[in-house]
Amino acid sequence: MIETTFVYDTYIATTPEKLWKALTNGEFTKKYWFENEVQSDWTVGSTVSYLNKDGKVVDQGTVLINEPYRLLSYTFNWLADETVREHEPRVTFELKQMDSTVKLTLKQEHILPTDLRDENEGFHGYNNGWPAILSNLKSLLETGSTLPAITI
């Protein structure tokens, strides 16, 4: 089956250390990821869980790469999705220092055509979801506040 990859770059006026903490600290993720909290010890092979505002695990994966302040990669499974997949979806964050800015590249791999079929999910969701999350992250790190409430 043909798979798709979603890639998104943004530039954030911060340090790799602050950005890394923002990506890996659950209390921080709740501020910009629409109240979703990430939980993991970030050791390769460990579980990564995303909890919604009610504390229910909604997404889960396994840490694949952890190179602090540079590269973080993990599988990303939607627990409500029962699609049989050849490859697990994978999310990778790459951080690259550029003077006083960090280039953050997000890559989500192994997106199936069936992930793209519902207009409120899939690629429509990737095109709106990831940019909204990362814009919130950028605003929070640069100004101390997220964007005004939006629905993704």
Q: Topology, pairings included?
A:
Elements: E1 4-12, H1 16-24, H2 26-32, E2 37-39, E3 47-51, E4 57-67, E5 71-75, E6 77-78, E7 90-98, E8 101-111, H3 122-143
Antiparallel strand pairs: 1-8, 2-3, 3-4, 4-5, 4-6, 5-7, 7-8
Could you explain the architecture of this structure?
The protein has 152 residues and is of the alpha+beta class. Helices cover 25% and strands 36% of the residues. The protein has helices at residues 16-24, 26-32, 122-143; strands at 4-12, 37-39, 47-51, 57-67, 71-75, 77-78, 90-98, 101-111. Strands 1, 2, 3, 4, 5, 6, 7 and 8 form an 8-stranded antiparallel beta sheet that branches. Strand 7 (90-98) and strand 8 (101-111) form a beta hairpin. The longest helix is centred in the C-terminal third of the chain and has 22 residues, at 122-143. It is globular. The chain starts with a strand and ends in a 9-residue tail after the last helix. The model has no long low-confidence stretch (mean pLDDT 86).
Order of helices and strands: EHHEEEEEEEH
How many helices? The count is 3
* Rg (CA only): 15 Å
Number of strand segments: 8
Amount of beta strand: 35-45%
- Ranges where pLDDT stays below 50 over 5 or more residues in a row are none
Major β-sheet profile: 8 strands, antiparallel
> First CA to last CA: what distance?
28 Å
Could you say which overall geometry the principal axes of the C-alpha atoms support? globular
Residues in helices, as a percent range: 25-40%
- Structural class, please? alpha+beta
Give the averaged pLDDT, no decimals.
Answer: 86
